[in-house]
From TrEMBL:
Residues 15-172 form the Glycosyltransferase subfamily 4-like N-terminal domain. It holds the Pfam family Glycos_transf_1. One of its GO terms (molecular function) is glycosyltransferase activity. Gene3D superfamilies: Glycogen Phosphorylase B. Residues 178-338 form the Glycosyl transferase family domain. Signal peptide: none annotated. This is Glycosyltransferase family 4 protein.
Length: 364
């Protein structure tokens, strides 16, 4: 089977969508299929995540940088995609993120080439860009299936769109708990952006930092809010207590050293880093009103879910509670791995393989 995967950009991006794309594309290629990865990266681009040598990566260089598409660029991309897809004649196309599956779905109109759209964000993301959400909904008429992470996310879409939605969560990489390596570290993993809201996390930690002088807050990731977050940390005088190390490929070391995982996200499609922390037996803290978090953290079983009205105080109180009690951390931590077993790699890969196989045969 000739399978095309597509994403706008892959170069050095450490996100959940990029991770699952590389895993699924590699798995489908290793199973003996002819797999091509189509992206708008420049020729010298490198993937943050491992990609099988059996996957042919076609880097088109259409866009020179990460930026919203203008109208002219949008139609130019559609025409170019259509030309290339008609030349390549794939049996199926799987496009990741709306920035790719929207133009690609329009480019394939009338071609009989089936397309699966893989969405990795929730409708709330489009609050400031409703035109993008309109195009997403419009594109749903031209795709065979749409994948989302959870049942809660599916319910946020109109009924007509829901009829095409298939739920496939991100596969969770299980990290090994290493005995006696836990340190007084609160860990957060994610892009430094508005959605992840690490500002709230920093302010919450600052409220109790003096009470727990041995504890550190470690925020692993990179993003446009780094300068702002660094300024806030400096204002609190906590440069030696709150660390922003950037992206780290060695996540085993991050998880085995942490005693608490805290997510301050406003919304998630699927809290992959939270699930990975649970797999490593780390108790987690998140907000009860955060979709993508509240389906993974089970209150007072594998962590704490807190109220989202006074975000700083609620998060600070929960951190205080776990920092003060090693027995509570151990109790919640023990329950972590079993709570994310259903998100294992084998289950997720099987779901993707079935979906690709069934969708490719549908139009034959």
């Amino acid at each position: 089977m000739k399978v095309f995967f597509a994403i706008k950009k892959l170069q050095d991006i450490a996100g959940g969508a990029e991770s699952i794309l590389c895993q699924v594309a590699s798995r489908i290629a290793e199973n003996g299929n002819n797999v091509t990865l189509y992206s708008m990266d420049d020729e010298q681009a490198q993937s943050f995540y491992p990609l099988s040598s059996r996957v042919k990566w076609k880097k088109t260089g259409i866009l020179k940088q990460q930026k919203p598409m203008g109208l002219f660029a949008f139609f130019k991309i559609i025409l170019r995609m259509r030309h290339e897809m008609l030349r390549e004649k794939p049996d199926i196309v799987i496009a990741f993120m709306h920035s790719m599956f929207v133009p690609l779905s329009f480019s394939l109109i009338g071609t009989s080439i089936p397309i699966i759209a893989s969405e990795h964000i929730i409708p709330k993301h489009y609050k400031k860009t409703p035109h993008e959400f309109f195009l997403l909904l419009l594109s749903s008429f031209f795709v065979e299936k749409i994948t989302v992470m959870t049942s809660q996310v599916k319910k946020l879409y109109p009924a007509l769109t829901q009829s095409k939605i298939v739920i496939i969560p991100n596969p969770v990489k299980f990290y090994v708990e290493v005995a006696n390596k836990r340190k007084p570290v609160i860990l957060n993993v994610g892009r430094l952006n508005e959605q992840k809201d690490q500002e709230t996390l920093i302010r919450a930690f600052a409220k109790i930092a003096e009470k727990y002088p041995e504890w550190l807050l470690r925020i692993v990731g990179e993003g446009n809010l780094r300068p702002k977050l660094e300024t806030i940390i400096q204002d609190y005088g906590l440069e030696n207590r709150i660390v922003l190390p950037g992206v780290n490929k060695d996540m085993q070391s991050e998880y085995e050293n942490a005693s608490i995982f805290a997510t301050s996200s406003l919304y998630e499609s699927f809290g992959l880093a939270t699930a990975e922390a649970l797999s490593a037996a780390i108790p987690c803290i998140g907000f009860a009103d955060c979709i993508g978090t509240n389906e993974i953290i089970h209150h007072e079983f594998n962590g704490l879910l807190v109220d989202g009205k006074d975000r700083v105080s609620s998060l600070s109180d929960a951190m205080d509670r776990l920092m003060a009690s090693s027995s509570l951390r151990e109790s919640y931590g023990r329950n972590g791995p079993q709570s994310v077993e259903k998100f294992g790699l084998a289950q997720t890969m099987a779901a993707w393989e079935i979906l690709i196989e069934e969708t490719s045969k549908k139009l034959k």
